[in-house]
Specification:
Helix 4 links the parallel strand 3 and strand 4. The chain has ten helices and nine strands. The protein has helices at about 10-20, 65-80, 100-110, 130-140, 155-160, 170-180, 200-210, 230-235, 245-255, 285-300, and strands at about 25-30, 85-90, 115-125, 145-150, 185-190, 215-220, 225, 260-265, 275. The radius of gyration is 18 Å and the shape is globular. It binds iron/sulfur cluster. Iron/sulfur cluster binds near residues 37, 93, 94 and 150.
Length: about 300
Amino acid sequence: MHLNSKHPFYSANDYYRELFGEKIIKLAIDGGFTCPNRDGTLSDKGCIFCSGKGSGDFAGTKNTSVTRQYYEMKEKMAKKWEHGRYIMYFQAFTNTYAPLDRLAKLYEEALSLPDVVGISIATRPDCITEETARYLAALSERTYVCVELGLQTSNEKTALLINRCFENKIYANTMDMLNSYGIDTVTHIILGLPDEAFEDMLSSVRFAVDSGTKGLKLQLLHIIKGTELYSMYLEKPFHIMTFEEYVNTVVSIIERLPSDIVIHRITGDGKKETLFEPLWSLDKRRVLNSIAKEFVKKAGFQGHLLLS
Ligand code: SF4
């Protein structure tokens, strides 16, 4: 992929076009899972930023079948893209947190639907067994399979603060295991966590890349009403990234990334009704346009200032 300041990073869109020869649409669904960080196994609080929907606020309707959600989400997407092929994105909660036979049934249902070319599975790094990885490796021989791991930060102090409930080494071991099975990966990192400076965010990205992730999702921290984070903020406000800080941070991080890392996301999605701060993030188009303009202004692009 030839990158320059006008095409400044290797996007998911670029990557899917290379793999499938056309635009691929991701349909976010809720597979009816819970999470060990919510059901009392590790904690009953969850990560402090996590909404009651398990970070699946834009997924299909919970407690309805995968097939039904496929048609529901496809119809929603049809306003934007009338035709296309799809990746079924198991987004809400922890999508490998169940016995393998239940997982296999859900994934197979998703893969049997018309024009579905693969699945993407969001999960915690402490929730993938070797047996599941082996199954996913076999599955990836006949379809596209990607596992998305929520790291959020590599700063262990912040990890404690956000109640992540796993250590960095668990993430690194799981990433190793997935790579050894040849399974595609994406790592989620949150920018703007309380008390984190640019160096912390860059370290998190560096840690994910060094651990072998194939892709990244950079998401802005959202304070969602009703979450632990919201109560924490009301009690003791912390710095919320400004629009300008966010744009500069995203650009500066991408400039330091190897050019073969796929960038799946550079903003976050927030719902107007539940987002408390930062409200500027609701204007997603402005955020994306400003990031694009900043690359041009700096004559920068992915890999331009490689991580060292
Ligand atoms: S691991 Fe995911 S689903 Fe579980 S509490 Fe954290 S953000 Fe929510």
